[in-house]
Design goal:
Elements (H helix, E strand, L loop, with lengths): L1 E7 L5 E3 L5 E7 L7 H9 L4 E4 L5 H17 L3 E6 L2 E5 L3 E3 L2
Parallel strand pairs: 3-4
Antiparallel strand pairs: 1-3, 2-7, 4-6, 5-6
Helix pairs in contact: 1-2
Length: 98
């Protein structure tokens, strides 16, 4: 399941290096590796994706994490753990400030 959430960047937590305005972040609870394509397309088109693995079987979560990690590496993006079982995968021009 992928849903789009609009939010306003405040305090430099998630910022596009070119401008700080309203952003879109994609929230996803991926339950199979077949759903990775939609998540990768979101990243490729410039949208960060927040993935929660809490209810996903461990071996499936590991496979999804590996696929998305490879995708952001190939796209010159990055990833960051933001909570227990929760990661953000982001495109090239997004910077995560911790």
């Amino acid at each position: 399941m992928i849903s789009y959430i609009s939010f306003i960047v405040r305090g430099g937590k998630l910022s596009d290096m070119n401008s700080i305005h309203n952003k879109i972040i994609v929230f996803s609870r991926l339950s199979s590796v077949d759903e990775c394509e939609g998540a990768i397309n979101s990243i490729r088109t410039g949208y960060p994706i927040l993935v929660y693995f809490g209810n996903t079987e461990t071996h499936i979560a590991n496979s999804i994490y590996t696929i998305l990690s490879g995708a952001v590496y190939a796209l010159d993006g990055g990833k960051h753990k933001v909570g227990e079982d929760t990661y953000i995968f982001y495109p090239k021009r997004v910077e995560i400030v911790t």
